[in-house]
Write the structure tokens for this entry.
Amino acid sequence: MMSKHPGTGSHTVTVFVFPGVRLLDVTGPIEVFTTANEFGGRYRVQIASQDGREVITSAGTRLGADVSVDEVQEPCDVLVIPGGPEWETLIKDDALLDVVRQLDENSRCTASVCTGAFLLAAAGLLNGRRATTHWRHAQELASRFPSVRVAPDAIFVQDGQMMTSAGVSAGIDLSLALVEDHYGAEVARSVAKDMVVFMQRPGGQSQFSVRSRAPHTHQQMLRRVLDSVAENPGANHTLTAMARRAGISVRHVTRLFYDEVGTTPARYVEQVRLEAAQGLLETGDDPMPVVARRTGFGSPESLRRAFVRHLGVTPGAFRATFRTAGRGREGSGVHVGAVVVEARVDDEELSAA
Amino acid sequence: MMSKHPGTGSHTVTVFVFPGVRLLDVTGPIEVFTTANEFGGRYRVQIASQDGREVITSAGTRLGADVSVDEVQEPCDVLVIPGGPEWETLIKDDALLDVVRQLDENSRCTASVCTGAFLLAAAGLLNGRRATTHWRHAQELASRFPSVRVAPDAIFVQDGQMMTSAGVSAGIDLSLALVEDHYGAEVARSVAKDMVVFMQRPGGQSQFSVRSRAPHTHQQMLRRVLDSVAENPGANHTLTAMARRAGISVRHVTRLFYDEVGTTPARYVEQVRLEAAQGLLETGDDPMPVVARRTGFGSPESLRRAFVRHLGVTPGAFRATFRTAGRGREGSGVHVGAVVVEARVDDEELSAA
């Protein structure tokens, strides 16, 4: 990759912080790089703020800076740009964007965490590149910056010397990948085990998304169709059934979906069913055949295929990772369970129109 | 649980920091509690240091404190005691242990992260309780503090008003469980999704452990047996075969194992085979039948059963989470894959003799 000294040698990491920066976006990567030093890595990590003073993070904690941006002299190997809840204000701050550009020019690899991707995009650094961000903001990134090819499901994306990662804790995943590039898989694995995090987590970011709301529409007929799907995802929602229910032609239903919802009726129904199934798995104890039936998938096998295709994990995996902690903690505080076989999901790009 | 105001109301969280505290032990829980405030939680989080001044963490970053320990007036709902690499020095620091006791007395729930469990144990707060800590130190905790019942595989353990969690990032898991107790599963789930972490991760802490070395022994005969197992875990290592190889009786082999290794020959062999299989799955591409054969499990089904019993995950799950990131990143930067079915593992207690 962009490694200057593969295998050995030291690497400098500069983490840029600003008022309101998200705490874990900063400290996750720093923990990874400094822990790597226990296992053969040689990272020199510095925190840079605009004026060299400490900043107050979005969590309210005060975080010291080691240098001001102007004191960052030599080129660094990795520049980390974290995010923050006030990203909409930040991307209007021209001085801040200038700093980001200046730091990026002086770094061999620039990596954003979470909404840090918005800073990179606003600074023009992601033009024509593939990138990701927090699942909640992926659509927003794509529509604000049409030249960025957003991969909404990725935990992290590398495109040339630019790397972007998903929400918050994904900065840890991205940093582990960098450690692997710099010092090899064994060092990276030691860091992951020391921090008690996975080298690769099962599934993409989509499994973390909140269920979508029924889209707004002023078309009364379409509204009725959408509501009937949302109210009872397990019912018969073939194109013919929906058309009959709305009292319009199949072709008209299809066109309404295309114009107002931006997808086909079949895809919309599958999305609603998927989200209903996610809800049942998160909070209920129904066996898989019941979940499949109640959500309109019919069989556990269809349910399984839809989950793997869209979320990268099976319904069982999803249930195991998102059901509530309380249940598992009964008695021992130890709750475990997972059997994993391999599956593969094509990543989907949000093509911003 | 210990919740004063279940469902609503505010909760105060005090995080105790000291020089050399591990960065993510502190910031993981703080990120969870402050993020909960975005979803209906009402946490007031403060960082307390002994003298109220900032501390330098083990990562070298400067972290501000909000109050000194003496300024912590009112009782808090949650006290967080993080760990640090210098825990051996810390537990000899009587003044520090006094502070821990004083803070604990004033809190409704005390929760340690990682080696923070050593501080609680040294302060006498875990006597007669079940607890966990970083997998690397679980045995050490059990032998130094025989009255603590150590659960080495747990991600976190709750025993009365004391909670302890595994290494580093497990502080996030523990904090999510507290959020669930205080404000319900929906709030906790929102926090997990916002931070892009799992509500429950697949498998216990054992899957993160490094492979054990062959135990030291001065018994030449036993040494030969142990070496032959380590050199070729896939060979025939029945009790009879081992006895013949060492030129001693079956009963003698059994007694040597019991006295010198502290377990039965069969358990020892299974452990070595398990660790050999972990190694092959982490770094190789062998199909499961080959892994099973090379490591002496014979069939994929036996391999699977051993993994689920000891690690809480299947071999496929283990491979998916611990193989190197580089491989999966090719092309797209998106690497996913997991199918999970449920399994359950009894937690094992290290009974400190």
Remarks:
- Chain B is about 45% helix and 10% strand.
- Chain B touches chain A through 98 residues (CB under 8 Å).
- Confidence is low (pLDDT under 50) at residues 1-6, 325-353 of chain B.
